[in-house]
Amino acid sequence: MILRVTISIALLCLSIAVIAVTDWDSIKYFSQWALYGATILYALMAYVQVKTSIDIRDFRVEITEIRRNSWIQEDLERNVEQENTTQSLYWKWIIFFY
Asked: Which DSSP category does 25 fall into?
């Protein structure tokens, strides 16, 4: 996660430096769009990974509690399924930009 966030920040700094040095002339050239596309892609990937890491860290469940109450297990399975659907939407956008 730290590597992906670092690469994202480095690409953002590089993009800003290229725009500042060329006075926005780099936008005209298609070859420079790869840099801006990579910046957007890595920013999205870093965002999703940080968000997922926070969600996983907060998700702690005692196995013994789940076995005692089956309705809790069903509810947790439903929540995990909904969360997986939401997370898969982020990856679809990342692949689209890539």
From this structure: G
What is the count of structural domains for the chain?
Answer: 1
Q: How many residues does the chain have?
A: 98
- With tokens 């992906």, the residue in question is 4
Of 35, 41, 34, nearest to 17 by C-alpha is: 35
| Interatomic CA distance for residues 57 and 92, integer angstroms | 24
The span from the CA of 25 to the CA of 18, in Å, is 9
d(CA 74, CA 52) in angstroms, rounded, equals 22
Domain that holds residue 23: 2-97
pLDDT tens digits for the chain (98 residues)?
788 889 889 999 988 998 888 888 887 777 788 888 889 888 998 998 888 888 777 666 555 555 555 666 677 777 767 766 656 667 667 777 76
Which residue shows structure tokens 């990856």? 91
* Alpha-carbon distance values, 73 to 61, 80, 86 (Å): 10, 10, 20
